[in-house]
Amino acid sequence: MSTTRKQTTSKAYEATHVSTESLLRQRHHVRRFGLQTQLKATSAISGLHGSRFRGRGMDYAESRIYEPGDDIRNMDWRVTARTGRPHTKMFSEERERPVIFVVDANASMKFGTRTQFKSVAAAKSASLLAWSVVNNGDRVGLMTFGPAGIAFDKPAGGKRGMMRLIQHLVRADADSPAEAESARSLAETLKKLRSLVLPGSMVVILSDFHHPGEDAKRHLVQLRKHNDVLAFVVSDPFELHAPPPGLYGVQSGGRMAVFNAMKRAPRKAFETLAGTRLQQARSLTQSTNVPLIPLLTNDALPEVISQMIKNPDAAWRQRLKNHPDLQEIMPAEPPAKTAQAMENHRP
Fold this sequence. Notes:
Blueprint: H1 3-16, H2 20-25, E1 46-50, E2 60-65, H3 77-83, E3 87-91, E4 94-95, E5 98-104, H4 118-135, E6 139-146, E7 149-157, H5 158-174, H6 186-194, E8 202-207, H7 216-226, E9 228-235, H8 237-240, E10 247-252, E11 255-260, H9 264-287, E12 292-296, H10 301-308, H11 312-322, H12 336-342
Parallel strand pairs: 5-6, 5-8, 8-9, 9-12
Antiparallel strand pairs: 1-4, 2-3, 6-7, 10-11
Helix pairs in contact: 4-5, 6-7
């Protein structure tokens, strides 16, 4: 096989499958995305963010017996008076912060007409952001959900954490058949995550939001009480615009059918369905103060993510500008609280 043919085959494979090589290459595009926030992270390892552990910093942790050389300004006079022995206050120091990626591996993600499948775009985006997180000195964890079930890798730092995340993404993609009938909802995934995530963590969701589940809002509200949450909705351009008039063969769950797009009515119904899905995703995240960033399979991910993560509301307006038909279904302006919630995510 010629070199050119091998390269073409490799590109075709990586457009439809999550590969270790493609995720490793994302490290070359790493930029600082402003994922750091001012929430406290509960960790016992030194890093970039504040936590409630012993050390010197801004937050009180505990009091201990005074030792020569301690700053007298930090004397704990109440404990000293109560015990009869001089005590000094200890304060928090900066610590690593866990960042957990929640990636949709349902069959609906195995779709794409431009550049790559949604599943590949989601995995690349997670890897891209994870490289940035690790470079910042923080830890990365991963939870995937799909027909094969819900799988979780607890946060770990450095190369070890990244390689475990990459291997998990590749495995989850391989275990998710494109024609699976069953699906795991985001709601049941977040319910499980709530029992595993440490307060002060950051949760990053990447999904097409085809299967949000009935209790997704409640679980997002609970997660937001003690963690930062950021979401990406991944779509394919084909999902936003009906195809030109014609007859199209489609396949779903092993069933073959014909989509009749000869008339305007079926095409309009197609676009309404896509717009409704996006609006539901946006309403869900707005009502829970979770910033939502729209991604397309043909986006130049490093550039687009670095721009959009700074201002998700502007990202929505740009998407609507590029897809005028969606404006009939989706409002252009989000509630003010979304922009306010994003303040913590700015660099």
